[in-house]
Amino acid sequence: MKSLAIYKVNNKALNNGKQTIYSKSITILNKQLKEVTLSDILENTGQAQGYRVYVREDSIKIDTNNPPESTIHIIDGDVFVEAESYNYHLNPKLDYSAISDTKNITAIEKNVVNAAYVTSCNTIAKGEWAVVFAKPNDGKTLITVATVAKQVSNGIINGEDVFYFNLDDARPGYLEKLKILKPLNLVVLDKDPISIMIDLINNNQAKDKIVIIDTLISICDTNNRKEIIDCSRLFDKFTDLGGTVLTLAHANKYPDKSGVPILEGVGLIRNKAHCVFYLQKFDDIIKMVNIKKRTHVEVEVTFQIGKDPKNYTDLFNSVRTLTDEEAIKLFKDRKQDQLAIDQETIVKTIHETIFNGIDHRTALAKEVHKNTGDYMKTIYSVLDELEGKHWKMIKGLNNSKVYSII
Questions:
Q1: Which CB contacts under 8 angstroms, 24+ apart, belong to 290-297?
Q2: SS3 144
Q3: Closest among 328, 313, 335 to 381, alpha carbons compared
Q4: What is the pLDDT of residues 127-162, one digit of tens each?
Q5: Which alpha helices (DSSP H) does 182-262 contain, by range?
């Protein structure tokens, strides 16, 4: 690999009127035509000082009929070979300051986008490659495209800068999305994301462009490390020029032990991407959670979608980003709904018992236990968990708990 450093030769050490240079293309040979390396010289400085050698440049043949006439000089640790035309400095200092990006701030500024987000929920930052993955039908396309479209609607992003490549949809679904996105002037296509990205890179027009690839497996084998490396190189070139890449991906069939989705494919995808989110759907709630980031993005965002939409357009328009307080309340509400379904007999019996006038906590629980045979602990748990939704509780005489139907 070619070194990026600048070689700073010492052109004053010999002071013999010849130009001092550094060259990687020369080979130093002794009288026996055996190569003499820099390490050989430094390990035997006493013998090397003043030693006569041949200098061969670019594998050009040398005249060995005459004795070597180039001379090795060692001055304060610097090694030189004085040849007929030049002084060759064999170990010049490496100057990396000359290639420091502090000298290229103006050029880099041209490709840096303003600190902004591609999505209305501040989950995907501009200028990065982000991966959003989920199990089928858990909302990765819906949430990603809807939140990007919201930024366009709000005038934060120019619709013509957004390229949505729908590579994973049947024609009816593709047509429906075309109709939704047409008013926003997004560029929607069903093929060739790679060639279009290359065109934008080659024409230096990637800045501020947002490419959504739905899905990653449609352009590469996500279990093939080489293909992932090739894609990541392209994505890096695109983002280096100020563009943004969002690749939607699938989750494995089974989650981890904690119930968290696992990204399908080799771990290299997560390693190479700048930002990674997973989505999980719970009835009409979709949770978006970050598991890798390099800039400031929201760590967790919760969305609510319509429960019974007539079509995808209604579903798309129903996406709503919740505040933390709204999310907590909604999760609690859905948890209560599920508990009422799971413990339907207990809930129904509690209602009937309260209606029949048995409303004090202990007596109520005992009556429900007698009629259902369920554990007292389970009955008390249902009473507590569904308080405020199915019944309310007030304190009576002697601090007793008295229930009434809502």
A1: 290/123, 294/128, 295/125, 295/128, 296/125, 297/117, 297/122, 297/123, 297/124, 297/125
A2: helix
A3: 335
A4: 999 999 999 999 999 999 999 999 999 888 999 999
A5: 193-202, 225-240
The whole-number pLDDT of residue 103 equals 79
Q: What span, in angstroms and rounded, lies between the C-alpha atoms of 303 and 315?
A: 12
Cα 270 to Cα 251: distance, rounded to the nearest angstrom: 12
Domains of the chain: 6-95 (no CATH), 129-323 (3.40.50.300), 343-405 (1.10.10.10)
Residues 6+ apart with CB under 8 A from 314: 306
For residue 19, the surrounding DSSP H or E stretch is strand 19-21
| 399 Cβ contact list (under 8 Å, min separation 6) | none
Query: Cβ distance 345 to 388 under 8 Å?
Result: no
Report d(CA 265, CA 136) in Å as an integer: 15
Q: Which residues of 321-356 are buried (b: 16+ CB within 10 A; e: fewer)?
A: bbeeeebeebeeeeebeebbeebeebbebbeebbee
> Model pTM?
0.67
Task: Give Cα 240 to chain centroid, integer Å.
Answer: 14
User: pLDDT, tens digit, for every residue of 64-104?
Assistant: 888 888 999 999 889 999 998 899 999 988 887 777 888 77
Asked if 363 contacts 376 with a C-beta cutoff of 8 angstroms, the reply is no
28 backbone dihedrals φ, ψ, rounded to 5° = -95, 130
For tokens 């989920």, the residue is 134
Write the pLDDT tens digit of every residue in 12-65. 888 888 999 998 889 999 999 999 999 999 999 989 999 999 999 887 888 888
pLDDT at 109 over 90: no
Residue 278's CB is within 10 A of a number of other CB atoms, namely: 23
